[in-house]
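User: Hey, my collaborator sent me this sequence without any context and asked if I could get a structure. I don't really work with proteins. Can you help?
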Amino acid sequence: MKIIISIRNFCSRQFFSHAALTCIFGFIFSFSSSAQKEAKPTPPLAFLNSHLSYTTDSLGNRVPDFSYCGYKASEQPIPNVEVKVIVPVRKGDATLRIQSALDYVASLPVDANGFRGAVLLQKGTYEVYGQLRITTSGVVLRGSGVNATTIVGAGTGRLALIKIIGKNSINREMTGIKITDAYVPVNAMSFHIDPSINIKQHSNKIIIHRPSTANWIKLLGTDHFGGGITALGWKPGDRDLFFDRTITKIEGNTVSIDAPLTTALDSTYGGGTIYFYNNDDHINNCGVENLHCISTYDRTNLKDEDHRWNAINIEGAEDCWVRQVNFQHFAGSAVSVLETSKRITVEDCISLAPVSEIGGQRRYTFLTTGQQALFQRCYAENGYHDFAVGFCAPGPNAFVQCESVLPYNFSGAIDSWASGVLFDVVSVDGNALRFGNRGQDGNGAGWAAANSLFWNCSAARIDCYQPPTAQNWAFGSWSQFAGDGYWNESNNTITPRSLYYAQLRERLNKNIDQQAQLLNVPTEASSSPSVETAMELTKEAGKPRMQLKEWIAQASKRNTIPISYSNDTVLSVSDFNRLVKQAESKIRPSGSEGAAMQIKNGVLIRGSELVTGKRISVQWWSGGVQGKDLQQARPHITRYVPGRSGRGLTDNLDEVVAEMKATNYVAIEHNYGLWYDRRRDDHERIRRMDGEVWPPFYELPFARSGKETAWDGLSRYDLTKYNLFYWNRLKQFADLADQNSLVLVHQNYFQHNIIEAGAHYADFPWRTANNINNTGFVEPVNYAGDKRIFYAEQFYDISNPVRRELHKKYIRQCLNNFKDNNGVIQLIGEEYTGPVHFVKFWLDVIREWEKETGKHPIIGLSVTKDVQDSILSIPAYAVVVDLIDIRYWHYQADGSAYAPMGGQNLAPRQHARLLKPKKTSFEQVYRAVKEYRKKYPAKAVVYSGDNYSEFGMAVLMAGGSMPVLPENIDKDIVNAAAAMKPVASTNANEYVLSNGKNSIIYNTVTKKLERR
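Assistant: No problem. I've predicted the 3D structure and written it out in structure-token form, which is a compact way to encode the shape of the chain:
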């Protein structure tokens, strides 16, 4: 497969005018479409008299028309929307004032052009501690100038500062209508369906679904990335493409659409289907413009991450824009266009001085995972992936006249199979531009770009590789070169200067110089200039040439955004103040709204109701941020994916609570993550060579120090400082739990890190190599058999003064964080099979804290049976314990105890392999709970052992707490049980609770619960 381009006459290096261009150049484009369908050679094509003429290959593929990107597909200029409300500058948090103004404009009617109005911020600084959200079409947020109005993202939250966000109700699992073409080529804008199907009755909004089939994945070589391990290999259905298009015409069985396809639909690899949707949930005609966004941060730590990550997120939106906005100090993206958005323009923006770790998911300055996004005249310094296209972005997407200065990583396609990406007049100073195969990198990103093109770009290195079934091109590149894609005129500059605007001019058939606004580049480059020319150029050489950053800074002169307004149409000051007061009155007060959780009569209750329901444990590790990984994810509290929210990402805690209540879950059992970085899912123990960490991140309790380098490539932890995101999220859930009668079971520690597989310890914050606190664990790590870890005894050894103080401070943090909550149960740690002396230390710290604060949290004892009994036999420790959790032992069905010993440096499953436990039974669960209930009548008893959810009735009838009961059970009977105790029954099939006057009886044969 070859592509040939020849330049026959070289014209001005600037963008050509409508009539002046007379250059001629020819090129041949051809694709490798599949192993079965070889592309045939094609003749040259000419670019003559300002006309682009494309040669297709034998299957009809050609270079895509990228010009459909941007607001209104770049067919209309971004409008200047009329101001409807002005937000005055005042001291203090401006979140409510600005949001009230946005909500007011959202309530106004839409005009004939689809706009409601603009909110104008005055000259000055607005501190925003919360988040600004545009959730209705036709609303614009405008400042009074990029150097005049500043929004400061204040506080320590990781929220995006501004969100343009609609809803996304598109169901990608529904059955579609089959496209009947055997092959629909790249750049196609029509296809065929079964003529018997009447689609005119449907919406004109469609999703075109291109599947990722097993045979296509195998041909790409992405089913396996080496090492004999296929865990990261692509699986069928994991890399499907979804083109969001509008039907423009239906003629017979031919369907025409509004933008080209950028990956072929080949029946050899599953073809394509369409399904219809209503886009009423998406918002449009919204913008953010003419201002400066800054994030505060800890100025003592230049890698601080407890501050704003993204400045502007665009989600569930189309035909929206960000223009003339400068950004400083954000950890993640200046602008992130998410996969549910399309036709977005981001222009004349500058990002400076980001503050974060140097690693994955940080400093993705201008990012799109959506389609038809246009980033033009954008500038970034010290980013990571400054101009980036993400996972399976279906394209087209374009970056035009952009510059990245001294980034820490490349720009280009950074995840799997982004197709139809254009980098046009893009410069990366000090790093690379890349279209290629990332292999295992990026959680198995594999082939990252297809049918994508570099045009007049410059970088330290440009990678342009050709994937099977597609092509990538590079024209007029200045760089080092790598790749087997198509190259032409390397180390040269070609005309037209911008392919994007050449395509747009031709498509619209009009002069588009005003839209292009290309920075002037001198045209004289002769190696044999005249004397006069040489003298003139010598004179010019002493002057610095205008840089793109300066050109962008002058955008306000070229495209003035008005800040004037009419008093007749703007909300008055008094009405605005009234609006803000109304908004203040609607804010839900923080604190508990539900009845307080407490232990009364030896059972856990809220008000007069027994606490019942299922419990869910958070994921310890594993997962991804796409497809099946999201579908299989469990709710979590401290999982974090920058810029993305939802199940499997950064969970929306209100949604988690709503789902728990709807599905009979009363509690989340939470422990910190096994490791932060998904790369460690490979269970290797090696030091990572960089900080290219993979999400989702299971956050850890401790803050990064910003100093030195930990085993995962980010900075080391400081065990004396705490991860504010982690603790704030837990606090937020605890508040919601108190308001909604739910429970947070907070596991202080997580033993899995210090025992079993060596990888569990590799990134552990307490490991000496991973912190700045000199914890004293030996380095290099003494892995047993060069594989396993046995560090429990050392971790629980409190004779080391450094570790003792760190443990003490951390336990107090666990208590302080929830000091005003009542719905939190504190347990020593997930999987705790440790020694009794550490449990005593834990309880000592709690007792000391309780004495100092006067607070009395619910403290649970969740340990092995021998340790449990030892602690409860000592009054000074037993008095600190409020709840007994039977978790790491149980009575087996034959009546014998499965009770591994504590402090033996074995994990629960290692004990199980040795002792081979047998199943329990209803009778034996009842026995276990009743024994402890009778011996310690003031303490609640919870059963969390073998198959606990199956034995809720046994727990209830034994007087236990938090039983899992049938959803249709009589709640009045259950709540009456809270005031009763188990008593003996004369009927072997019946279990009885009684208060001396009334009884509740459960029959194990009939499965009936009744009150007598």
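In plain terms: The chain has 22 helices and 59 strands. You can pass these tokens on to your collaborator as they are.
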